[in-house]
Amino acid sequence: MSATAQIFHATQDNFELDVLEASFTTPVLVDFWAPWCGPCKTLMPLLDKIVSESGGTLKLAKVNTDEEMALAGSFGIRSLPTVVLFKDGRPVDGFMGAQPEGAIRALLAKHVGAQQAPAEPEPEAEEDLAAEDLEAAIAGLHAAIKADPKKHELKAELADALLRAGLLSEAVAELDQLPGEVQDHEVARRARARLGFLQAVEHAPGDGELQADIAQNGGNLMARYQLGARFLLAGHFAAGMDQFLTILKADRKFGEDLGRRALVDAFRIVPDADLVGDYRRRMTSLLF
């Protein structure tokens, strides 16, 4: 199959942009193969088929290891074919050798979800609204949901608006009632990211105390996380993400990779696409 936006050849030059950064929006399956590899020739048409039928929810990057030995070496590829799934800028799953279609689809279902229908366009992040605008937005969403109760994406939008208005318990109730197929919708993920930051600072010390703690002990990574969350929720997006980057640089194991996870959640709620792109690149440079 010829290269397309969904199925393409990956090289050292385009891997960071077209695989790592792209995986924040759409999971990317990377097939490490070689022209002389028999099982690779069996597997590749199957991967082409699965990705072509995914409705835009999955991409396939093909790495010819004979031509890209350094790239294959950086991921420790020792056996062909090796297939690695990238999501949110990092490898999350994979397999070696030719596999049956059912096994591949089962692996993908854990990370990508159903592959039958095209994915809906991801909604753009919204600018912060004034209190009265939030009230109007919430009232409008309630009315729209009443008119069309089966449109569950509206309930995810409502949960996010409630969080922005500080109505946590109401927002949590809406999120908990979302059906399974909507839980992974981008709006729902954005709302849960915002909820996580709100919960992180709910019982945290004040900004001044957190800054004093960090000044005395720069290695207090929990204080940095809480301060970063406060900055982020207050609209100081770069200052918040700087704290998360510092955590990522200091200790990848802290809080089960809390620095990276906090950055990924921040990307979902920061409305400035250029700023998000900048910090994604900075994060990626630390990961690989």
Walk me through the topology.
Elements: E1 7-9, H1 15-21, E2 28-33, H2 38-52, E3 59-64, H3 69-74, E4 82-87, E5 90-96, H4 101-109, H5 131-147, H6 152-164, H7 168-176, H8 180-183, H9 186-201, H10 207-216, H11 221-233, H12 237-250, H13 258-269, H14 273-287
Parallel strand pairs: 1-3, 2-3
Antiparallel strand pairs: 2-4, 4-5
Radius of gyration: 21 Å
Which structural class best describes the helix and strand composition?
alpha/beta
**How many beta strands in the DSSP annotation?**
5
User: What series of H and E elements makes up the topology?
Assistant: EHEHEHEEHHHHHHHHHHH
The multimeric state of the shown protein is single chain
User: Main sheet: which strands, in order across?
Assistant: 1-3-2-4-5
Helix share, percent: 55-70%
CATH architecture of the largest domain: 3-Layer(aba) Sandwich
CATH superfamily placement of the largest domain:
Glutaredoxin
CATH class of the largest domain: Alpha Beta
Mean pLDDT: 85
What portion of residues belong to β-strands? 5-15%
Envelope shape: globular
What do we call the CATH topology of the largest domain?
Answer: Glutaredoxin
Query: What are the low-pLDDT stretches, counting only 5+ consecutive residues below 50?
Result: 114-129
End-to-end Cα distance: 29 Å
**What's the domain count?**
3
Please describe the biggest sheet, giving its number of strands, its sense, and whether it closes into a barrel.
Answer: 5 strands, mixed
Total DSSP helices: 14
